[in-house]
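Entry:
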Amino acid sequence: MAKTRLERELAERYDPVPHDRAFRDKIMAKPGVKAAYDALSEEYSALDAVLVARKEAGLTQAQIAERMGTTASAVSRLEASFSSEKHSPSFATLRKYAAACGKRLVISMV
């Protein structure tokens, strides 16, 4: 089947950047990037924990939402909230998410 003009134009412009070790090293060498990345380490760790829990449970956002009694878009916003200063999830919401994954929420300070 022939591509439309729009599909051809998009294909010509689409040039994905591989997010591999070389890319990371190049980005981290730029002034200020490492400091900014390090400043977000807690958020990245929290997001990683949430995504790992969902992956280990083998569940989609829709399945998590069903178990939490909410919508898939709400779960998507919850996961995205870890990399945004606009909203921080409540402990109750995090407990529900953890329970939906068959996990228990544990918070520690080191």
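The CA atoms of residues 6 and 12 lie 10 Å apart.
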